[in-house]
Design brief:
The protein is an all-alpha fold and about 110 residues long. It has one domain: Cytochrome c-like domain (Cytochrome Bc1 Complex, Chain D, domain 2, Orthogonal Bundle). The chain contains 7 helices and no strands. Helix 2 packs across helix 7 and helix 6 crosses helix 7. The radius of gyration is 15 Å and the shape is elongated. Bound molecules: heme C. The site of heme C has 22 residues, from helix 3, helix 6 and helix 7.
């Protein structure tokens, strides 16, 4: 049953995103833009008005750079500082995807 529900969900998402060039990238990018960008900035530099007023660290900050993917996933799930926990709002898979996208800004 659970399996069926998941399948239906995945199929729905696939239909909604059909035609996009790169499936995973574009869905995590859309998620980042709608849920994270207002504080973390378009490229993770926290240069948005909300990011600046909350003093969110840019992704170039050594404290952010030293975090691995698992630690970032944890921070998003459980919240960190003024960031609310996302574990009831996003699925584990969405959180992982959006963290992977966020990490593409790391240089
Ligand atoms: C309301 C503003 C806000 C939103 C929205 C937000 N964050 Fe954050 N985020 C913060 C703050 C504040 C911290 C605490 C640490 C800091 O200052 O960078 C943080 C920390 C983090 C960290 C730990 C590394 C770091 O930058 O310190 C990650 C990873 C992260 N956020 C990812 C996300 C993702 C992914 C989303 C979208 C699902 C998101 N954030 C949404 C404000 C926000």
């Amino acid at each position: 049953m659970n399996h069926m529900v998941r399948y239906a969900g995945a199929a729905l998402v696939a239909v909604m995103l059909a035609g996009s060039m790169s499936f995973a990238q574009s869905s995590s990018e859309a998620l980042y833009k709608s849920k994270c960008q207002m504080c973390h900035g378009e490229k993770g530099m926290a240069d948005s008005p909300a990011g600046k007023s909350m003093k969110v660290k840019p992704i170039s900050d050594p404290d952010v750079k030293k975090m691995n993917e698992t630690e970032m996933v944890e921070a998003v799930k459980s919240g960190m500082g003024k960031m609310q926990p996302y574990k009831d709002k996003l699925t584990d898979a969405q959180i992982k995807d959006v963290v992977v996208y966020f990490r593409t800004f790391l240089k």
